[in-house]
Automatic annotation (TrEMBL):
One of its GO terms (cellular component) is plasma membrane. It is found in: Cell membrane. The keyword Membrane applies. This is ABC transporter ATP-binding protein.
Length: 585
């Protein structure tokens, strides 16, 4: 992907970095040329001492210029690849089905992949470039060794492969600890967040729970680091032993070239070249093994980015052309929703059914309420309607079309949703509404949406009104109460103007007066649209055109409020219990 994002800059960086990597080799050759020219021995370039110095001066000027170009190219490459990768990341997340966001392993992978995009990818690219450039430097240094003794040169190479192998194994071990303890790391991050988050800090303070979380943090960290310490101890032992091997070979080579100089078989300049090349080689090899280790380590982490981009959705949607899409949009206009013998069991639930034999018809424009105790299947029914999951048995129809035959972009044009755990987007008010609407809205349209949810009551009093930044983390950003955030969320849901509005506990954090006004508007405004809502408050349910009562995944009652009260069944009992609570003295 980096190749696609910034191919030219990558090539320039690779070429110029390789040029810079040869600086140590140039230093070694310079020493040799100066000594040989000063002693009157034949030189490689045939230059005088002053000639060598002038050439060296030109090289230094060129080197400084190249260093500036490389730094500039790195900046441009980083900017381009970050933009490219973040866009690709969002595009990939957009292709994932909603069920994926309920899978802890998948969510963990998404979060890790995103964090890798911030810095690991750049480190990975740097490791590639630096390893390739140092390999060129290393190759030149090895070639110089061959001038003295090909056999010793080969032995030196083989000896230095030993510590390289040890370091690569250590890098893999670090990654495996990280991967194996991903849940531990997430627990550590969550626990740390508790003592820094403004929503949890007041309760922690009042309960004087800082000592509790301090111990919890320490225990989690100790659990993670025990394996790291054990791995580090093992690495240092093996690495120290492995380093003895190349040290011995370098010592042998030094004795060999020293004997060659004493026997006058090589010049002083060549001896200096070969001897200083030992340090050049060691430096190049050290850098090469370091970059190789980093590449190995970063490569394992980059695998998580690759793994993320290779994720397959659990739910597949059909793909159609624009003409067919237009036909489908026309066909599902004014949708009638039908559940036919629908049963469903969550994955890994051991076939325990969350819904069983659901038969339900929702005509277009109906105001439908779903009620039942926790775990009755209300939210699960909505999830199937949104196709977060497919039914285990039966089917769901939209205007006689199976839900599975609708492309994702067609299906989601039908719905506007407000989930129980709604999003709190620290954007401007305007951005919040236009994000949901999918297009630009006029000022009048935005105010209408805000008045619908009673949010205009507080938005009009903010400094920047529709352009007001939400979130105290930002300059001039304003903080909202739980109820105010929920009113913004209701305004977002209304702004989409979809045929079907689905609300899950839409006013759980809203005061009673605002709740009454919001539902009065819902009942008035949604007469030409379908409204499906889940609520435990009977004051909001009793005005629904149809009430469906679920219990243990089954529909046990359905009808209007008066009908269900006359039946004196489950609905009557739940309503009576809640009413008695309000009637207590």
């Amino acid at each position: 992907m980096v190749w696609k994002a910034a191919r030219l800059y990558f090539i320039l960086i690779l070429i110029f970095t390789t040029f810079l990597a040869l600086a140590s080799v140039v230093n070694t050759i310079t020493f040799k040329e100066i000594i040989d020219s000063a002693t009157g021995t034949h030189t490689l370039l045939g230059l005088s001492v002053f000639g060598v110095i002038i050439v060296r001066f030109i090289y230094e000027i060129l080197k400084k210029t190249v260093e500036g170009i490389v730094t500039y190219c790195w900046q441009l490459l980083d900017i381009k690849q970050v933009i490219f990768m973040h866009r690709a990341f969002v595009d990939k997340v957009a292709t994932m089905d909603l069920a994926s966001f309920e899978n802890p392993a998948t969510v963990g992978l998404i979060q890790r992949a995103f964090s890798r995009l911030q810095f690991q990818l750049k480190l990975y690219i740097q490791s590639i470039v630096l390893m390739l450039s140092s390999s060129v430097e290393l190759l030149v240094a090895v070639s110089i060794f061959f001038l003295a003794s090909p056999v010793l040169a080969v032995l030196i190479i083989l000896a230095n492969l030993v510590p390289i192998f040890v370091r690569s194994q250590y890098a893999y071990g670090v990654f495996m600890i990280y991967r194996a303890d991903d849940e531990t790391r997430r627990k550590f991050g969550y626990t740390a967040n508790i003592v820094t988050d403004r929503e949890t800090l007041p309760e922690v303070k009042v309960d004087r729970a800082f000592s509790f979380f301090k111990e919890k943090l320490s225990n989690i960290y100790a659990q993670f680091t025990q394996k790291q310490i054990k791995n580090e101890k093992r690495f240092q032992l093996y690495n120290t032993l492995a380093e003895y091997v190349p040290t011995l070979m370098i010592f042998t080579f030094s004795i060999y070239i020293a004997s060659q100089l004493i026997q006058a078989k090589i010049s002083t300049g060549l001896f200096v070249l070969l001897f200083t090349n030992i340090f050049t080689f060691q430096g190049a090899l050290s850098r090469f093994s370091q970059y190789l280790g980093q590449l190995n380590l970063n490569g394992h982490f980059i695998d998580e980015i690759r793994e993320f981009f290779e994720l397959k959705p659990n739910i597949t949607f059909p793909t159609v052309g624009e003409t067919q899409k237009a036909k489908l949009l026309k066909k599902i206009k004014n949708p009638k929703i039908v559940f036919e013998n629908v049963s469903f069991a969550y994955p890994n639930s051991q076939d325990k059914k969350a819904l069983e034999n659901i038969n339900l018809t929702i005509p277009y424009g109906q105001n439908l309420a779903l009620i039942g105790e926790n775990g009755a299947g209300k939210t699960t029914l909505v999830k199937l309607l949104l196709r977060m999951y497919d039914p285990t048995e039966g089917r769901i129809l939209i205007n006689d079309m199976d839900l599975k035959d609708l492309p994702e972009e067609v299906l989601f044009t039908l719905y506007s949703t407000l989930f129980q755990s709604f999003g709190k987007f620290n954007l401007t008010i305007k951005e919040n509404l236009e994000m949901a609407a999918g297009n630009n809205l006029s000022e009048e349209e935005m105010i209408k949406c805000l008045k619908f949810s009673n949010a205009w009551e507080f938005v009009k009093d903010t400094k920047n009104k529709l352009l007001q930044q939400l979130g105290p983390e930002y300059k001039d950003g304003t903080d909202l109460s739980g109820g105010q955030w929920q009113r913004i969320a209701i305004a977002r849901a209304y702004a989409k103007s979809a045929a079907v509005l689905i609300l899950d506990e839409p006013t759980s954090a809203v005061d009673a007066k605002s709740e009454m006004e919001i539902f009065d508007r819902l009942n008035k405004e949604m007469k030409v649209n379908t409204l499906i809502f889940i609520s435990h408050r009977f004051s909001t349910i009793k005005d629904a055109e149809k009430i469906v009562v679920l219990d243990q995944g089954k529909i046990i009652e359905e009808g209007t409020h008066s009908t269900l009260m006359n039946n004196k069944g489950k609905y009557f009992n739940l309503y009576t219990i809640q009413a008695q609570r309000y009637q207590r003295d």
